[in-house]
Amino acid sequence: MNTLQLPASFNGPVPDPTATQQVSPLHAFSIMRRHRLAIALVTLGISVPAGIGIFSLRPYYNASSILIVGTHQAPFRDLQATVSSPEVDTVAVNSEVSILRSPAIARAVAKKLDLVNDPDFREALDHVPVSKRLVDAVSRMFVTPPVEPPMTADERLQAVSLLLDQWVTILNDGRSYIITITASTVNAATSARIANAYADVYLDFKRHMKISATWQANALLDEQIAPLRERLRKAEQAVQAFREKNGLIAAELERAPGANGSSNSADSGGTTVTDQQLIQMNRELITARGDLESRRARYTEVRNAIRNGSLDSIPDAVSSPLIQQLQAQEAQISSRAASLSQTVMDGNPDLQSVRAAAAQVRARIGAEVQRVANSAAKELSSAEARVAALSAEVDRLQGQVTAENEADVTLRQLQSEATAARTVYQDYLGRFAQTSTQAELQVAEADLISRAETPLGPYGPPRKQYMAIAILFALMMGAGSALVIERMRKGVRSTAELDAIPGLFALGLVPAFAGPLARQYASRERSAYLETVESIRSVLSFGHSRFRAKVVLVTSAEQAEGKTTFALSLAANTGRCGQRALVIDCDMRNPSAMRVMGAVSIMRNTHAPVSPLLAGLERDVLPGVDILTPEGMMHRGGGAMLLPEELGQILAQVGSQYDMILLDTPPALAFPDAAVLSRQTDGVVMVVKWGQTSAATLVQAMRTLHTYDARTLGAVLTQAPPHSLGEAEKHPFRIYSHYGLLPPT
């Protein structure tokens, strides 16, 4: 016989068909329909208590006040060192939100509004949760709990601040400087009061924090001013003492650094008397030296003129009135002498007299020029003496200035220390004056944009949304419970699951029926059961060559899966078509074919020759159906199975008499009968009970058949409830219902 080679997956580890199986949406809806009662119960069990709890919630009211942080006041000049105004960024805004959420703010709000005595807060503090009441009730059954002392005022205040932390929401969206303070309580006016109190307390806290920082800076400056003043006094005294000790007396008043907008280190100590004297002497020495050179040039010029006899080159002689007068007389006398020399002889007394007068005038001019030369010589000598005296004085003053400059180095260091002390002292005085004025003008770097108003209506709870969520959650839990119930049932429930098992093909699905099998075939009316069995018989008789078979072995993986009933039904459908079928009960340990048929009138064919192998043949148990129970083999003892050789002899004897021969064998996982006898048949049909046989069990059964090289025609899903099937399997039954083949539900 031809055998079918199963997939190579049987050569490896056993696959888990359920591991890769995916549930389609249609199949999921089918599961929901099958378990709609469980879904309804779970949904009601969750949604009803949830609805009661939701509609028993007390309404609450939301009130919001809005702040903007980062608003800067106009600071005084140079105040950044004591009261800084940082740039506001995300970190700064988050810091302000954290301040608003701090327990200190909540405690201050509780004190300001006296919330400890507020009825709503007293009720919240005195409320005992149901869980705690249950725990206390259970505890009282075993022990007597100690009496709890009442809360102190401070503890109640702390408890109220904790409630405020739960009822107040501080929110910033992270993209702006806006902070929203929202209070949610059961009283509209209380919500508005709390939201506004939070804003007021926060602004007061920020303002007092800045004032405190200002006064702290003021106190620190005040502590530093006295030592700085003493330091400045000592530094100035040291400068003055060193100056007096070294004779460095300033000739002009000191100028305060910065008095005219600038400070020159060279002028920080003023100019000493010696400096001024040296400057003056230098100036006089330069003037004297210039005058000396001028007088020396004049003297040289006079001497050269006298030596050369050129009086006209002597400025003093030219400018002297006496010399000019004498020169005029000389010119007149010379003119008369010239005129006389032309008319008289040299010995003329008049001429001699005139020449004598001319010589006398020239002598007087020479004497006057000599006086001028002597005067220039005296002036030159006087200028030289003055220059020498001034040079000596300058040398003396330079020596004195050099000594003073050496002492001035130390003086400048002392003056620098005094200047630094004065600068720091004046700076601290300025800061002290600024902080003293600024302390009264501090404002918080935040503004209240809008105050919270009393809400006109409750903000929540959103009962409709909560109820919708509760119902949706209940439906999800119900659907989940249906899937869990479905998952807990490990049996195969669809032909698709059969097809997923290696080596199996779903030949069909057979519904469950009520009553004995004989009643199904006693009536001439058609039913869905008969139609489904007929569909499977048609596949085996007229289907693809892969499925066509005359001798069919019917088995199952486990017991009580309906293999005997299906084998008899397949034979009975063959008989209803006018053909003959034989069912061979091959279960030598527990033959059940005749027991399934119940009390049936059996007519034996006494005319037919009886072979020892056919001793247990019962003819026409059903129309066209014979049942063979090999009685001879059953008496061999030991529960031995029917041998393949014996089955071959039986088939050889009756094969030509029947159109279909069905072998009912024991379960394949328990006994090897089915696997051994399959070599004598055209193929094996595996019967699977709906919702009971697992996929893993079928895989093991297929492995057993594959071990004996059995040809598997396919599998049949039996005892399926028509109204619990999936969408794909339920569709044919809708058609059967339309034709009246299904009983009404």
UniProtKB/TrEMBL annotation:
Residues 218-245, 373-407 form a coiled coil. InterPro entries: AAA_dom (IPR025669), Bact_polysacc_biosynth/exp (IPR050445), P-loop_NTPase (IPR027417), Wzc-like_C (IPR005702). The chain crosses the membrane at residues 37-57, 466-485. It catalyses: L-tyrosyl-[protein] + ATP = O-phospho-L-tyrosyl-[protein] + ADP + H(+). Keywords: ATP-binding, Coiled coil, Kinase, Membrane, Nucleotide-binding, Transferase, Transmembrane, Transmembrane helix, Tyrosine-protein kinase. Its EC number is 2.7.10.2. Residues 561-707 form the AAA domain. It comes from the Bacteria. Pfam families: AAA_31. Belongs to the CpsD/CapB family. This is non-specific protein-tyrosine kinase.
